[in-house]
Amino acid sequence: MVSSVVVARTKSDGLEYLAEAAPVAWTDASHSAQQFQSVRDATRAAMRLPSRFRAFALPVTEAN
User: Fold this and answer.
1) Where are the alpha helices (DSSP H) in the chain?
2) How far is 5 from 33, CA to CA, in rounded Å?
3) What is the model's pLDDT at position 2?
4) Residues 17, 8: Cα–Cα separation, whole Å
5) pTM of structure
6) Region of residue 33 (phi > 0: left; psi between -120 and 50: alpha; otherwise: beta)
7) Does the pLDDT at position 1 exceed 60?
8) Cα–Cα distance, 44 to 9 (Å, whole number)
9) How far apart are CA 11 and CA 21, in angstroms?
10) Binning pLDDT at 50, 70 and 90, where does residue 30 land?
11) Cβ–Cβ contacts within 10 Å for residue 7, how many?
């Protein structure tokens, strides 16, 4: 089950996530990422970033 959605982008050694502290800051830790309630909200945030970031919405699943 999807518990939240984050904004992510790829880099050479994996993913990094949009951090919640600054307007445009990135973090390697998914638990420090800004959380969104829906894919629509995360996609909207990703599309508002400059195109050089090439970010996308990524659903985060809850581990059981």
Assistant:
1) 39-47
2) 9
3) 56
4) 4
5) 0.83
6) beta
7) no
8) 14
9) 20
10) confident
11) 27
